Amino acid sequence: MARFEHSVVIQRKVEEVWAYVVETANNPAWQGPIVEVRRPAGRPLEVGAEIPEVASFLGKRFPVTLVVTELEPMTRSAVRTSAGPVRLDGSYRFEPVDGGTRFTMAGEVDAHGFFSVAEPVFAGVTRRESASSCERLKQLLEAEVTTDAP
């Protein structure tokens, strides 16, 4: 089992970061391993909602279904896999900080089948991917142009 946690401070309001992250159609843009989300854009999340995705690891694509297990708007969300070769319990935390939002991605993954053979590699890749996903999210949200002009 591999544990990971990474935090970044994003120079955006919690509401903006939350809105982007809970729109699951955005996942492929900032989460490196996710190549496709099969949940229609714009559907609100709620506890029990399923998020079917396609992920890629070491060149192999595989379907994964996440189930929302916690949802505290603007504060925390959590998911668990219900289908796929990897068991994941993951969470996002959103904390207001001076000038923005501290976003934290954390979780535990347990590989099965093909992935269990490469578990030490999988653990390292998972930690690196969570860090780079957080950094990519920061870059995407801070690069968005704001339209505060009258």
What is the CATH class name? Answer: Alpha Beta
Order of helices and strands: EHHEEEEEEHH
What's the overall geometry?
globular
- Total number of helices: 4
The percentage helix is 25-40%
Please tell me the overall pLDDT. Answer: 88
CATH architecture tag: 2-Layer Sandwich
Radius of gyration equals 15 Å
- Count of DSSP E strands? 7
Number of domains: 1
Give the termini separation: 52 Å
Strand order of the largest sheet: 1-7-6-5-4-3-2
Description:
With 150 residues, the chain is an alpha+beta fold. It has a single domain (2-143), classed as Alpha-D-Glucose-1,6-Bisphosphate, Chain A, domain 4, CATH 3.30.530.20. Helix content is 28%, strand content 44%. It is built from 4 helices and 7 strands, in the order E-H-H-E-E-E-E-E-E-H-H. It has a 7-stranded antiparallel sheet with strand order 1-7-6-5-4-3-2. Strand 6 (86-97) and strand 7 (100-111) form a beta hairpin. The model has no long low-confidence stretch (mean pLDDT 88).
Features:
about 30% helix; alpha+beta; Alpha-D-Glucose-1,6-Bisphosphate, Chain A, domain 4; about 150 residues; 7 strands
In short:
With 150 residues, the chain is of the alpha+beta class.
Note the topology.
Layout: E1 2-10, H1 14-22, H2 27-30, E2 34-37, E3 50-57, E4 60-72, E5 76-83, E6 86-97, E7 100-111, H3 114-117, H4 119-143
Antiparallel strand pairs: 1-7, 2-3, 3-4, 4-5, 5-6, 6-7
